[in-house]
Specification:
Elements lengths: L4 E4 L2 H10 L4 E3 L7 H13 L2 E3 L5 H13 L4 E2 L8 E2 L2 E2 L6 H9 L2 E2 L10 H6 L8 H12 L6 H10 L4 H22 L2
Parallel strand pairs: 1-2, 1-3, 3-4
Antiparallel strand pairs: 4-7, 5-6
Length: 189
Amino acid sequence: MIKEVLVVEGKMDVVAIRKAVDADCIITEGFNLKPQALDSIKQAYKKRGIIIMTDPDSAGERIRSYLARRFPNAKHAFVPVEDATDNDDIGIEQAKPPAIRAALEKVRTLHWEPSGEFSGADLIRTRLSGGRDASARRAKAGKILGIGWANAKTFLKRLNHYGVTRQEFDAAVAMIDAKEEQGKGTAHE
């Protein structure tokens, strides 16, 4: 049983989560946050803590951002886009139990004062920005680090706001580079 209450967007998200873990959930009904939903989230936040697990799309990010401002000590779980997509539909309800469990194992807390550890130069140097394959590499790094996919600007913000260490970042990039190198080796054989 997960101690914190998961905040998700819809009823089908709850169905998917309950297939993966034993957890209580509160539904936001998208960006329709009704007063009773906000009150339930507030009570859960005070008593048990919450984990925000919204869909990996623009609407989900808007909801996450809104809730993060209201509940600054909330935890965040990110299911990668590729693990939350099925039949051209993106959402937590599309995620398989292993993807949900993996996201919950990498829960992060938003730090309002950014670390300043990472800069745009780090993203360019590691080919996470500015290159042909940068978006795909950010998706892989986001999955490894538990901060999800984002455009370069948002990804950099997440690196600095979600407590990612230089060691974690370097290890994730090394893992991606090794897999790419391995793929090149098998492609030429």
